[in-house]
């Protein structure tokens, strides 16, 4: 060994990392000691490795995952692009949460009027998308709608219905149905990998939401609370019937009917 080598404890203090962290980074191949004693297993680092160690610590304070840090240290171009996109998405989610909280503070908890409606069974084409948690619902819904619209053979305003589970966990399936003609050709839908099905009819608890899609949880809350107070099982799925075209309607004027099926009580 030469005089430039530092034992792990001293190097940890120099680099503002813990001994445990240094051992973990060694196991990952992220920051390998300059020398390891064959008999004792003690790790030693050179002073010149402090810059790399401090860089790792800095990037960790920015919530950069360790695999991405490895790419940054190796000089991979664009290594931080995905992290930046993720932080922007989280910031946007936080803004939506803040807007929702401000609405509750201003107007109180939602009390949208709920009515009982009867819906007929409808033949539909169905698109399915996986959502990685509640924050991913908008993306998954938009992707499903885009698939339906690309495959849709007829013109005119579409009748679109979103179908969502009552409980939104870490991962779940989003479905969007497009009301299709009962006697229409099946070919375009099948070629696009879409399902043809019949959306069940029956009695539904329904409330109308007017406003942006990212505040639709207010109206969903009112419908679910109404059902719970009357003892109706929350079997789902929750339906969002999109009345307005978001391409031509201001967000504050979007009209969406929220529905959940009502089961006959014993």
Largest sheet: 8 strands, antiparallel
How much helical structure, as a percent, in the residues? Answer: 25-40%
Which class of secondary structure composition applies to the elements? alpha+beta
Please list the strands of the largest sheet in the order they lie side by side. Answer: 4-9-11-10-6-7-5-8
Record field, number of beta strands? 11
* Overall pLDDT: 88
Low-confidence stretches: none
User: Termini separation (Å)?
Assistant: 82 Å
CATH topology of the largest domain: Multidrug-efflux Transporter 1 Regulator Bmrr, Chain A
CATH architecture of the largest domain: Alpha-Beta Barrel
CATH C-level name of the largest domain: Alpha Beta
Annotated CATH homologous superfamily of the largest domain: Regulatory factor, effector binding domain
| Radius of gyration using CA atoms only | 27 Å
**Which term fits the overall shape?**
elongated
Number of domains: 2
Which strand-content bin applies to the residues? 15-25%
Number of helices: 8
Question: How do the SSEs run, as a string of H and E?
Answer: EHHEEHHHEEHEEHEEHEE
If you had to describe this structure to a student in words, what would you say it looks like?
The chain is α+β, with helices and mostly antiparallel strands and 266 residues long. The protein folds into two domains: 5-73, Multidrug-efflux Transporter Regulator, Chain: A, Domain 2 (Orthogonal Bundle), CATH 1.10.1660; 115-261, Regulatory factor, effector binding domain (Multidrug-efflux Transporter 1 Regulator Bmrr, Chain A), CATH 3.20.80.10. The protein has helices at 8-15, 19-28, 50-61, 66-73, 81-107, 137-151, 187-191, 217-229, and strands spanning 5-7, 35-36, 43-46, 115-119, 122-131, 160-164, 172-179, 195-199, 202-210, 238-242, 255-261. Strands 4-9-11-10-6-7-5-8 form an eight-stranded antiparallel sheet. A three-stranded antiparallel sheet has the order 1-3-2. The longest helix has 27 residues, at 81-107. The mean pLDDT is 88.
């Amino acid at each position: 060994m030469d005089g430039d080598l530092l034992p792990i404890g001293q190097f940890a203090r120099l680099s503002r990392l813990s001994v445990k962290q240094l051992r973990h980074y060694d196991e990952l191949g992220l920051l390998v000691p300059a020398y390891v004693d064959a008999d004792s297993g003690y790790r030693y680092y050179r002073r010149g490795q402090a810059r790399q160690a401090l860089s790792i610590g800095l990037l960790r304070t920015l919530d950069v995952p360790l695999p991405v840090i490895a790419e940054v240290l190796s000089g991979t171009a664009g290594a931080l692009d995905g992290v930046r996109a993720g932080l922007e998405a989280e910031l946007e989610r936080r803004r939506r949460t803040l807007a929702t909280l401000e609405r509750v503070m201003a107007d109180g908890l939602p009390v949208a009027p709920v009515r009982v409606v009867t819906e007929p069974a409808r033949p539909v084409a169905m698109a399915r998308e996986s959502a990685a948690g509640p924050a991913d619902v908008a993306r998954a819904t938009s992707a499903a709608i885009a698939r339906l619209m690309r495959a849709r053979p007829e013109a005119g305003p579409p009748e679109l219905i979103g179908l969502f589970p009552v409980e939104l966990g870490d991962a779940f399936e989003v479905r969007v149905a497009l009301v299709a003609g009962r006697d229409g050709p099946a070919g375009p839908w099948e070629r696009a990998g879409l399902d043809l099905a019949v959306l069940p009819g029956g009695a539904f608890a329904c409330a109308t939401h007017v406003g942006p899609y990212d505040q639709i949880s207010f109206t969903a809350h009112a419908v679910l609370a109404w059902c719970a107070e009357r003892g109706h099982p929350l079997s789902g799925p929750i339906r969002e019937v999109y009345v307005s075209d978001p391409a031509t309607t201001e967000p504050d004027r979007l009209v969406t009917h929220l529905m959940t099926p009502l089961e006959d009580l014993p």
